[in-house]
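Exercise: predict the fold of this chain.
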Amino acid sequence: MLEHLPNDYKPPRELIDKAKELDRHYVPTRYPNLHPEGAPLDYYTRTDAERAIKHAEEIIEFCRSKILQP
């Protein structure tokens, strides 16, 4: 979605890449039978989670800054 925003609202490429990284986590972390064996917790680390949270916070802050513009 971020890529399709009008130019005045489009985030920098780096932020779009972070959103794409979050997209890759969506399905495999939600569906326990997606992996051939084991549960999602067997494939994701605390570092993965912390990185994802940091990316999400940056994206939310970017969106907030655009919404709350004077």
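Check your answer against the key: The chain is about 55% helix and 0% strand.
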